[in-house]
Amino acid sequence: MSSMFSWVAVSLLTAVSTATEIPKDGECKDYGVYWERVFSRPGEAAVMSCYLVNPGVFNLTHPYNITWYHPRTGQERSSHMGHTMMQGTTLWFFNTTEEDKGEFMCVVRTSQGCFKQSYVLEVEAGSWLEKGCVHEIRSRQSLVALTNDVLSCHSPIIDYLSYLDTYSIHWYRGCEVVQMGVKFLLRRDGYLQVSGVVPDDAGNYTCLVSFQLGGVEGHMTETVETTVDVKVTYQPQILLLEGEISKVDLGSAVRKVCRVLVKGVGTHRVLVIWRTPGAYVSDNTTHRIHQLTQRELPVEGGVIVDVELVLSEVREEDLNVNFTCEALNDRNIPMASFRLQRDSNLLLPLGLVFGGVALAFVQCVVLYRLFKIEIALAFRTMMPYLYHSTEGDGKLYDAYVVYPRVIGQSGSAEETFALSTIPKMLEGRYGYRLFILGRDCMPGEALVDVVCSSLSLSRRVLLMYGGRSLPCEGGVADWGACLEQQLALQRSLLEDEGLGVVLIDLGGVPDSDLSPALRLLKEEQGALRPTPAPPHACCSSSRHKGRCGTEEDQEEEEEEGGEEVLPCINPSPRFWRELRYHMPIRGKARPRTRKHTHAHTHTHKDTQTHTHIALV
Fold first, then answer.
1. How do residues 216-265 score in pLDDT, each as one tens digit?
2. Which fold has domain 236-342?
3. Could you say which architecture CATH assigns to the domain 2-123?
């Protein structure tokens, strides 16, 4: 062991004793001249680093010695020798002059051998201030317009800040100091941050590094020729909806693409990445949750950037988790998220609900069409205050009854139906007011005046036709009945729109025999038809008036020479409901104010009536 220490001591002494002489050719392994030059200016500092201290050159666990030489003068450079200083593997120059330019040799000696390499120092003629605060040799950088970008100081001393005792960095634009504030900001690493870059920010910027090392002060400058790239105006926009929810089944695979539109011209610097609340998603495709490689598709006015997120198997812990897509760039970081939720199959319940609603709707439509009249009558009875009262509308009668009559014949079934059955039901049971010619007029009144006046005071016209009462032109029908019919049609079709006509077809007359006006009205609104009486029902015309019997009774009556027994008109309950449906609504709401006077009905309509009778 003692011999080992003695050998190391002898080696170190030998190295020190030979360090003052430049090694001769062949003594050290020569690595030639290093390709990178060190630039400096008169009065400024420079620093060289010996790159031979490298595990690729020798074993760094062995002791070694570094010596610097100036081959041109043959002198060794050591600490505090003139204006130079050695600091570890570096050689520092303070206040360089043009005489310092040239090669400097680094020699590394170890117990295993000797190694040497030369480094070149270039000293630019003239100082920084003498050249207008701009160096001839300068680096070039570009700023991106409309962004927050940075300028880096390329001075060699930036890589050796840890060696310095103290230092400070200042930036100049030309010869003026850059004022730090909103526009410019000096970062810790010496970078100059420029906010809101505009084309006017282009120019020559110089960074000045002042420092102190081992009690010696020095400074370095470096000029950066700066340009502003105004072509690149990218504004990323994520084409993924914020808060989007995807329905999935546990165990299924999910693939979601984050598509980013980057508008502008030039090379963009957008990085699209997926993350969860806990961490960024890996790009390792062997992971259950991973993202694929970023893909780019040029489009008009920009580029589309796609990154696909893959979940090979959805688990419970993936539900209701925000998977966020981020577009990292130098402007801002737009983000968009989506969540996974378990897919609850609502198709069957929704189908049942909609099917039930549709079925109920169809049933309601069918029921309404079948029982429309019954529903309307019930609603009028239960909700009378929803309908206006007929009081105060200037009318006296709910309906004017027009029934067929034949000349020289009375007591027919049609007449019995009009004079007895209709009033008994509508007036006696339901409280309607009817006007029937011959029953409600005064003796001696003019027929035309009575008909016109009564029609004006009526809300409806119950116009019955059938039997042998038509046509009126043949001389069979009663003249007054034809007049009533024609005046009622005239008023309802041509004059009084509020006068509704309810047609009651008593049978026995084909549509081709009806007058044009009556046929037109029947085609538009239809006609009510009373249900015929059973075959055994009949009513006598005079002596047996109101008496009904069987067919045998009728034959017996005829054999005995009695009066003719006519069939009855015996309507069904359905007919009465339909008739009530078309009658005026007897509401209880506030009556409407309408001014109708009896005198108004006796205007010049008489002359018009005779004109229209011929037309009808």
1. 899 998 999 999 887 655 678 888 766 688 888 888 899 999 999 988 76
2. Immunoglobulin-like (2.60.40)
3. Sandwich (2.60)
